[in-house]
Amino acid sequence: MNRLLNWFRLRRLDSDLERELNYHIDRRVGDLMERGLPEQQACRAATLELGGVTQVREEVRDVWLTRWLRDFAYDLRFSARSFFRSPSFTATVVLSLALGIGATTAIYSLLDQVVRRALPVPEPERLVLIDWKGDRATVNAFGSYNLMSYPICRDLQLQEQFFDGVLCRAAMSVSLSTGEEYSMTAAEIVSGTYFSALGVNPALGRLLTADDDQAPGASPVVVLSYDFWKTQLGSTADVVGRKVLVNQHPMTVVGVAAQTFRGVDVGEVPALWIPAAMSAQAIPGFDQMLSPRTHWMQILGRLRPGVTLAQAQAGLQPWFKAMLDEDTRREGFPNITPERRQRYLASTLELTPAPQGHSPLRRRLSQPLWVLFAATAVLLGLACLNVAGLFLARGSARGREISTRLALGASRGRIGRQLLADSVLLALAGGSLGILLAPLAMGALLAFLPRDAAANALQSAIDTRLLLFALLVSVATGLLSGFAPALEAGRGSLISSLGQRVGAGTGGLRLRKAIVTAQMALTLILVIGAALFVRTLAGLMAKGPGFDTSSLISFGVHPLRNGYTASESTRLVNRIHDEIRASSSVKASALARIQLLTGGTWNGSITIQASQRTTTDREVHLNAVSPEFFATLGAGILAGRAFDERDSLLEGEGGQRVAIVNEAFVKRYLGGQSPLGARIAPGSGPDVTPDVEIIGVVSNISYRGVREDWEQAYFPLDSGEAFYEGANFYVRVHGTSEAGFQSIRTILRGADPTLPINYLRTLDEQVNRSLNTERMLAALSGSFGTLALLLSLVGLYGVMSFVVTQRTREIGIRLALGATRLAAVWLVLRDALLMIALGIAIALPSVWALGRLVESQLYEIEATDPATIAVATLILCLATLGAALIPARRASAVNPTEALRFE
Amino acid sequence: MPSPRFPIPQGTLDMLILQILSLEPAHGYGIAQRLEQISRSVVQVNQGSLYPALHRLEQKAWLKSEWKQSETGREAKFYSLTSSGRKQLKVEKDSWARLTGAVQLVFDEGN
């Protein structure tokens, strides 16, 4: 350790030593002169006694650094000089490594941020997610995943023998105003225990406590995030005590959370935290906070020290069973069949480790990111192989130099160290370049993610852990690729290599061929992967959402979040809708309760009364739409009719209850029967009366995403719809979408200039957004495949050129003896073909084995799709044969007389 | 004309340095002079190996050093024994005593 430190203080140690030795000599000279020696002689004697000042200095320096390290530094210097002498070799190696390391680092940093990083709270490993496992019977659920009710969280807070704290939270966007402007802002609705259970400290003021979460509506307070306070409020110190408007309700800022803390969801960073007691204000029209049958929050708990997850899980079951049992006797418990009740009562509480908090983004991205990380690891492996191959080539070119050094008495270890120095130096150069490339690659990566998450939550900056990772990878790469050539250098026999003629000798040829074969195999795996993902994306793009997206625009507003009452909200939305339809640039316009293609749905079970009564075996995706909806989208009505104005009337006013289902619904539940006239109703219990008539069948259109054709049922928006989830407009315009945006903005400004627009975009963009992950996989795996192909072409070309140079004499003799030029080409190509064939033979079983890892990311294509594999293999064969052909042609152009006179 | 001197046995230089410094802190030149005096010019100490030895001992934390004014008024690097150096000296003295005792025993046997 001391010695390592000495590296850094070498200069000071040196000057100290010089002073020390000067003192010695001066004193000695003084003493000797006192004895009568003349000064010059005294000087000489003093220096001689020491045995030379330089020598002493060198020896002392050896003590500081140890000889090995110091010599290694000389090796590095020597390597650097020799690299500058062969710039093309150096550039190829450094670029290969930089690409490999840059890609690995970029993917790793995203993976680390999204999947691996623990929350910045004390002892995050004690956090667990508490979820319901089993049949929840019929509950009212909204939100992402792992949803639970608020009362369960309150009950769990009493389980102090297992937990140091239990919190619940729900991600929600609210309309927030800190001054004049309103904007939709990400918020987290949390229990009062949230901050104390996590162990977060305030940066300013105080955080929420259990006192802020007692009576509903009684504590209008919020805590701001540090980032929001800094960027939106300019870090003003007097923010505590200030009033902000949340959905038009005044609330007081009581504090700012610690700078590092950004909520528990990496994909949705909140700007503020609102106590659950204020959920009625934060979520317009919501009054179900205290209902045990409304599941809308995730529950996280902090285990007591010493309590294991298994102990807590087992210990909580008796309480949970009792709660389930009590629940079935509670008023309002749904009427369900006895076997359903049995399943409900068999539910358990499931605890899973949650040091990283809870994030739907993680759930969506972790598999694609691991796939990509595996691909970059393969790419890095390829780069290493390439570098190793190049080193071997260089090693054989330097064979005579090395043999000479061995002959002059250099130890094999000494030579190996020199080669090691070469590779470490190159790896560091490649690593540094890779680190420079990584942020660029990260930036490109983030472009594939949902824009809001990319903008708020994920950073393309390199942190120290990432830097460490990159350096580790690059040095490991250097050691790996230095290893083989170093061994090779130590092995060859002295006499034979000194006696070698130019251009002869094995030069590790067998090893190099093995390397190229491995490269072929890895490349083919990557190319096949790329082909699968590209075909998946192409398939989804070709499928489309099932309706015409050209010149179709959508936007959303949420009047209830901006101080409107339910009836005012209805009026405003209708007024906007009327004005849009009246606009000259609009062809058609429609309204929907739930936005399409966002990954979210409104869903529920449906009871069907056709020739017999059935209940859907999985939840159907539901939506409520205005009469023009299908016509505006251009979705075909396959049977029956679309909704008309009369369907929107309330029952009392002469309306009747009707529904439209999609093709998939008919296929799954009404196969063979005429769907028209069948009756359905939401819900699954025996008391549900199916009294809604199916009046039409619509073609499959994408709802949650392009990928799936799920069963859907549509209901008409009734005339009194208050748009609790916000109103979503679908507008088909004449002319450009830009002009359409312009007129929509004008209309909205006229209706209410303070009303924020939640989103305004073309349906093309919406489709693109919903295919983000697929596009990321296709684009990245495609570029990795291309890079891999390039790397292995370089490798193959290098080896084949070497082979040709090496066999020039042999080829010359063969040609002189009457062999044809074609035979010469074949002589070389045969080698290449063998390597390619072996590579393919290795790759195909691996593809088969790896296939299941990516299966879930593919669309309508098997991981072992023969056509895809055939095309990828063909691409590899053509490209590599092309690379091999260049040296092969050179072989055929050998001039026999010159070849025989080669030396 | 000094009597013929034999070179200092391998490994004993460190011990001698520790012994000299156990009496009082000294700078390199001082140690060299003391070595010269103590050994009565019987043992030949190559002064060139003195400084690497000092730095080696310092690296092992048996010695510590500081720059102080010397008897001539000039700043010199003074070495002194650390507590682990003191322990090491005792260990080396013991093993030296055992070694010479054993050698003596062998010689006595021969008489």
SSE blueprint:
The complex is a heterodimer of chains A (about 900) and B (about 110).
Chain A: H1 2-8, H2 10-34, H3 39-50, H4 53-65, H5 67-85, H6 87-116, E1 127-133, E2 140-141, H7 150-156, E3 163-177, E4 183-190, H8 194-198, E5 202-205, E6 221-224, H9 226-233, E7 243-246, E8 249-257, E9 272-275, H10 279-282, E10 294-295, E11 298-303, H11 309-329, H12 338-345, E12 348-353, H13 360-397, H14 399-407, H15 412-446, H16 451-456, H17 464-491, H18 494-498, H19 509-543, E13 552-557, H20 566-582, E14 586-592, E15 602-604, E16 606-609, E17 613-615, E18 620-625, H21 629-633, E19 637-640, E20 658-662, H22 663-669, E21 679-682, E22 692-698, E23 712-716, E24 727-733, H23 737-751, E25 759-762, H24 763-770, H25 772-806, H26 808-816, H27 821-854, H28 866-892, H29 896-900
Parallel strand pairs in A: 2-10, 4-9, 6-8, 18-23, 20-22
Antiparallel strand pairs in A: 1-11, 1-12, 3-4, 3-7, 3-11, 5-8, 6-9, 7-8, 13-24, 13-25, 14-24, 15-18, 16-17, 16-21, 19-22, 20-23, 21-22
Helix pairs in contact in A: 2-3, 2-4, 5-15, 6-13, 6-15, 6-17, 13-17, 13-19, 13-25, 15-17, 19-25, 19-27, 19-28, 20-23, 25-26, 25-28, 27-28
Chain B: E1 6-7, H1 12-23, E2 26-27, H2 28-38, E3 43-44, H3 47-59, E4 63-69, E5 75-81, H4 83-110
Parallel strand pairs in B: 1-3
Antiparallel strand pairs in B: 2-5, 4-5
Helix pairs in contact in B: 1-4
